[in-house]
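So, can you check these tokens?
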Amino acid sequence: MREYGRPQAGGGTGARRRGRGARSSPRALLVGLKVGVGLLLGAASLLWAGIGLRHLGRLSYFGITNVAVRGNSQVGTAKIVASLDLRPGTSILEPDLTELRRRVLANPWIREARVARRLPLTLEVVVWERTPEVLLVAERSYLAGGDGVILAEAVGAPGAPLPDLPRVVLPGGRYAPGDRTPGETVPRALALWRAVAESPASRGERLQEIRQERDGTFTVRTERGVLLRVRGEDAARQIIRLEAALQHAGRPLRAYEAVDLRFGDRIVLRAGAQKGG
């Protein structure tokens, strides 16, 4: 006798699973479709928002009304503003501040700069300038900063003296404003000039010039004609050694014709006729 109403072995469970799978597949597809549509709508919203902001930022309502310049004394405010090369009506939201800073720094008189937005409609430019610290003499005479950047050609009135600055003579070459002298020539020469000028060893002596030799060493000449030959580095330490040597010898610097400090273990003092009384 056959029994009715009882599932056959191994058949009912598989059928139920197939039924659930058949029902869940459309549901998963629907969920995936909703997620995909949501992502597309989100991307489209972001795209339109970006386009909208760009167009909004270009509206004349956001045009820069003021450029505030601070920290300048060598370079005129109008010249700094002109270097920004902003179109009339440029939006405060539009400029690339890094690019504006680069344009300002193209002027050799400006050592560092910062450009910032000051909302609602002001662009602020803060500069730190170079000042002439060296009279650089090569094929021509130039004003240079302490870092060796050429600021301008030193041109005075006919017959007028050149600026009273430390005079550094290079082997040769022609420069233009914005050029930088090779290596550490100017910083080292300036450090040497200051070390000699401030040393008790040079009391009563006035420096005339520092000349860079082709081997990288420096020759310091005083107005009395004394020559000091010095290495390019450790200027302060070499001058301290000179002070000790002169104190030991009991004679002033002007009693010598030449002093050679280029050797690490000794100082060469060459005596000459007494200069200057």
Notes: The helical segments are 12-57, 77-84, 97-105, 185-198, 235-249.
